Amino acid sequence: MRRLMLLRHAKTESEAPSGRDRDRRLDERGLRDAAEIGGWIGRNPPFPDAIMVSPAVRAHQTWDLAWAAMKGLAPKPHVELVPDLYGAEPTQLLETIRMAAVSDPKRLMLVGHNPGMHELAMMLAGSGDAAGRKALADNLPTSGLVILDFDTGDWGHVGFRRGRLVQFVSPKLLRQT
């Protein structure tokens, strides 16, 4: 069994002072939401063994805040900045996931961006939580987290429609429960 967690970065400023998209930082809501989703992850094991993070400022800020909220609740995972996650389409993201076979974590998290992350989640989820799939069909919001399980022992066998959606959660959904 392999578990994949897809975390979209938290809410950001509309423009970075540098004018570069990669430099956009989290806004106040994003700072709160990243910590909130990290706290949720920390209270809901199993935890990721390895994290692949986009090099965009907003993505690694999201991970840093999420980790700070789960520190002490979860063992420290291996974290890697992966340039290929920035602006990636679903097929590129799937190839990045399959490359995890080298280090072979049982639970992998990607911290990245839409539209690729949302499209990937929809393409991977072949079964599972029907209500979650319906909610996810609309959007993968900022700080949204998708958890998928794959009935395989090898990341190389992860593929479209082979995942079972375990859960879809976001700070907004957490506030509604």
Specify the helix fraction band.
25-40%
What's the Cα radius of gyration? 15 Å
Can you tell me the CATH topology?
Rossmann fold
* Gross CATH architecture: 3-Layer(aba) Sandwich
Order of helices and strands: EHEHEHEHEHEEH
CATH homologous superfamily descriptor: Phosphoglycerate mutase-like
The gross shape turns out to be globular
Strand order of the largest sheet: 3-2-4-1-6-7-5
End-to-end C-alpha gap: 29 Å
Which helices and strands, and how do they pair?
Blueprint: E1 2-8, H1 28-43, E2 50-53, H2 57-70, E3 78-81, H3 90-98, E4 107-112, H4 116-124, E5 125-128, H5 130-138, E6 145-150, E7 163-169, H6 171-176
Helix pairs in contact: 1-2, 3-4
Description:
This protein is an alpha/beta fold. It has one domain (2-176): Phosphoglycerate mutase-like (Rossmann fold, 3-Layer(aba) Sandwich). Helices cover 36% and strands 21% of the residues. A seven-stranded mixed β-sheet has the order 3-2-4-1-6-7-5. Helix 2 (57-70) links the parallel strand 2 and strand 3 (78-81). Helix 1 (28-43) crosses helix 2 and helix 3 (90-98) packs across helix 4 (116-124).
